[in-house]
Write a structure and sequence with these properties.
Blueprint (H helix, E strand, L loop, with lengths): L1 H20 L1 H4 L9 H21 L3 H34 L3 H13 L7 E5 L3 E5 L8 E5 L5 E6 L2 E5 L2 E2 L3 H4 L3 H17 L8 E2 L5 E5 L2 E11 L5 E11 L5 E6 L3
Antiparallel strand pairs: 1-2, 2-3, 3-4, 4-5, 5-6, 7-9, 8-9, 9-10, 10-11
Length: 254
């Protein structure tokens, strides 16, 4: 019954669209002068009725079938997204599709969403390019069977001998993270000046990098000193990369 009413609801929805495009067709030619909105409301009501009745007759088997179809669609969409990465891994490492899928799952654990290119050889290692790295590359090493044994990015070992050491999230500082950390650091610096109201920051010239879950920052602030003169001062701050709380900070000459 659920299937029948589902098909009826689909048919009614099609008539709803047809009625909006061509009212005469949507009313089967009986009321060619009927207003579009009236016809649309009529078919919308029919869709709602059939959908409600169909849901009432839905069995556990129907729910399971719908869930399976949903999972199949998601799997198909994921395969489509993974196609570029799998092709790159198969070509670059000279491996089969099954091995490429396994390698991609491993790289996903490290924070790589897509592999755009990988080339090299088992002896000297491979260079891996990915959107997360920008113009930089990661080094990938394999054993004689071409299984990935080590992944390194900017002197950071992400993976080695079956163990995930770090992920890209632990190392790469995104623009959004930098901006949030800067707001926290700037607030701390301003509140700890002798004259907070006189503070002026070089918002476009602060430095920041990420290390072991901490965002380390520095910048320049201009504010009045004890002699009421505006002078520049260097500030430093360490901000937690998860909570964005200031862990440690200082201002030169304050």
């Amino acid at each position: 019954m659920f299937t029948i009413f589902s098909y009826l609801a689909c048919a009614a929805f099609i008539m709803l669209i047809i009625g909006l495009i061509k009212p005469k067709w949507g009313s089967f030619g009986r009321y060619p002068d009927i207003n579009r909105w009236k016809l649309a409301l009529l078919w919308f009501a029919v869709v709602a009725v059939f959908s409600s009745v169909g849901s009432a007759f839905m069995t556990d088997a129907d729910k399971l079938h719908l869930e399976q179809r949903k999972l199949e669609r998601q799997a198909a969409e994921q395969d489509k997204k993974d196609a570029e990465s799998i092709t790159a891994l198969m070509s670059g490492l000279d491996i089969d599709k099954v091995s490429a899928k396994s390698d991609l799952l491993l790289l996903r654990q490290l924070g790589f969403t897509t592999v755009t290119k990988i080339f090299g050889d088992p002896k000297s290692g491979y260079e891996l390019s990915a959107p997360e790295l920008g113009q930089a590359i990661a080094a990938v090493y394999t054993d004689e069977s071409k299984n990935i044994t080590e992944v390194i990015y900017k002197n950071h070992t992400l993976y080695k001998d079956g163990v995930v050491k770090k992920t890209l999230k632990d190392i790469i500082l995104t623009k959004a993270d930098a901006e949030r950390a800067y707001k926290s650091a700037r607030k701390w610096v301003k509140n700890n000046l002798k004259d907070p109201d006189s503070a002026k920051f070089d918002d476009d010239k602060f430095g920041a990098f990420k290390e072991n879950g901490i965002i380390k920052m520095s910048g320049i602030v201009r504010a009045k000193n004890s002699f009421n003169a505006i002078v520049p001062a260097k500030w430093y701050a360490e901000v937690d990369a998860s909570s964005y709380n200031v862990l440690n900070a200082s201002i030169d000459n304050e």
